[in-house]
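2024-03-11 09:14:02 INFO receiving multi-entity request
2024-03-11 09:14:02 INFO entity count = two
2024-03-11 09:14:03 INFO echoing inputs for audit
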Amino acid sequence: MYSEKIFKEFRHPKNIGEIKNPDGVGKVGNPVCGDVMHIYIKVGKNKKGEEIIKNVRFRTFGCIVAIANSSLLTKMVKGKSLKDAEKITKKDLIKGLGKMPPIKYHCSILALDALRKAIQDYKNKKGKAVK
Amino acid sequence: MKRRIYLDHAATTPLDKRVLKEMEPFFSERLGNAGSLHSFGQEAREAVEKAREDIAKAINAGQEEIYFTSGGTESDNIALQGVMKANREKGKGLVTSAFEHHAVLHTAQHLEKKGFDVNFLPVTKEGFVELSEVEKALHKETVLVSIMHANNEIGTVQPVKEIGEMCRERGVLFHSDAVQTVGKEKIDVQKMGIDLLSASAHKFYGPKGVGFLYKRAGVKAEPIAFGGGHEKGLRSGTENTPGIVGMASALKLAVKEMAEDNARERKLRNKLIDGCLEIKDGWLNGAREPRLACNAALGFDFVEGESMVLMLSDKGIAASTGSACSTKSLEPSHVLRAIGLPHVKCHGSLRFTLGRNTSAKDIDYVLQELPKIVQRLRKISPLGGK
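2024-03-11 09:21:47 INFO inference complete, emitting structure
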């Protein structure tokens, strides 16, 4: 039903929790549909001077796939530039997790939405408008 | 060896070893087709008819009123489709409840699409169909009322005797999906005014893939599948001799041991419920009684059922979620929605169903592990106070 990768990610999720004074927060979902995700980011700069996700944490209410997605996505983006983080697609996440029923693909979309919202939130705070 | 505790008996039960022994000869040396004339066939026929007699006795029916099927789903389909189609001259009215098993619910929805007039009755917050609702729904053209004996998710036992009596007075046929109760609750189709009843062997320690339909003599029903005219034309297909023999044997044992099994399970079940209710923001779905002795349908705020089921499974405990986000559907359980549980709470449901082999130690182990799991998931969840 689910791949071993999903089970593994669910059993040992990384980056759970919140960040105090985060630079960006993305909250998506609705308890009514059964999935709620909160992603918190702290932004820093790398040696090249690019803005990167220095720290990222999540809280998720949802099924096994939703939690696995949240954990995997936070692992993928940690240390990445905002630009690269924004390039991650649903396909990348699904590829990273392996086999799941298509009905669960929306969990990946939800995680990405939360991340993008958090980045947007950071940019808004900085007064930067996004194209 | 890793500890494994099976607490999902409402899904299916293990085949009783005593039953297996009775079934075994019918797989090989007593191979006959009950429809054959030779001695092999006669032997099989004899076994099938003996099983029919035993099953009839167990529910106080006549032998000729028992029809063998492949299980609960097929029995429900014959009862609903077969009766509605065969009684068109009386009317198009079917009355059922909003929290029936999908075998009834989806069949009723199908009939509705085909032009029948179907009424899905609401149920109370406590998980019961009210007699007054049934009465209100009955009209001149009502052919059949179909109300389950006990709900498969929350275990509440419905007032079928009262409903049966009312249907009888009003000249309406009454079907009950008793898949969860046959072998677990006393059933007397005469006293309870039941005209049709569905059962499935694997719910009472019999084999999978076999069940029966009780249809009172004289009740008109059409077959839903056609073939060689077995089971008096109502259900064609070669009789599943080992399955039928196993079902009868399992039912006899279940009826004999019912009082004892129920008393033991109810005590353990209450211990489990009480222990779970000590977990903060935990609750019981449906009234505590009348409820199947084996059923503990619980819920926990801020966590999701599927996650709990997998974490319990990692601890060797098999439970189920009657709820949302199952792999098949994202919709929350129609049963929990019918009892008025808000969506968000539907997602946090967890069902344990005990069985003959459940021990006090098993319950202690669950009560030791479950609070930790709920706590762990709450730490991940953005809902609820931290």
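2024-03-11 09:21:48 INFO post-check: Residues 48 and 241 of chain B are 6 Å apart (CA to CA).
2024-03-11 09:21:48 INFO post-check: The first strand of chain B starts at residue 5 and ends at 6.
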